[in-house]
Amino acid sequence: MRSQKEYAEQLNLSDFTDKSLLILDDDDPLRGRLARAMEKKGFVVKEAKTVSQGLQIAKNNPPGFALIDLRLEDGSGLDVIKEISAKKKDCRIVMLTGYGNLPTAVAAVKSGAIDYMAKPVDADDVEAALLAAPESKAKPPENPMSADRVKWEHIHRVFELCNRNVSETARRLKMHRRTLQRILSKRSPR
Q1: What residues contact 92, with CB distance under 8 A and at least 6 apart?
Q2: Which of 74, 84, 147, 148 registers the highest number of CB atoms within 10 A of its CB?
Q3: For 108-121, what is each residue's pLDDT tens digit?
Q4: Is 116 within 8 Å of 94 (Cβ atoms)?
Q5: 186 compared with 169, residue with greater pLDDT
């Protein structure tokens, strides 16, 4: 995940005539928080929760910017990225996901995304990614998440996706249920 300081050059929002931003995420609190923060930064925000809502916005009025979650309740955000890219070539799209891995990052960029960010994110990081100059390259992170923190985030994400069912989560993560319970009872590592 890149922070605002990690981009060598950054454009200004005032450089763009179309300031519309589509935020497509099924996580209601995250989507609402990002929408409010991005409106304060000058974007005209449209929110969507499902692939079908995102596709409708992409077909009728494609945005100038987009922040799209990879996995949604009714499908993949990649479909929305492809539709937006077909309708509006200059749209600056950032893929957002809780499942950071190389194949999905490559698929997002091939579909038309300019960047790929792993959750959790904040508005400053999103703004930096959306407004990064095309020729700029990200610097290595100064304070990356520790391996323990990445593991903890992944376990908790799977736990939430399994509707907080310890037995199902342990089965999917291929670990003993008691081991998982001990991990879940501890505080998050730094």
Answers
A1: 64, 65, 66, 114, 130, 131
A2: 84
A3: 777 888 888 877 78
A4: yes
A5: 169
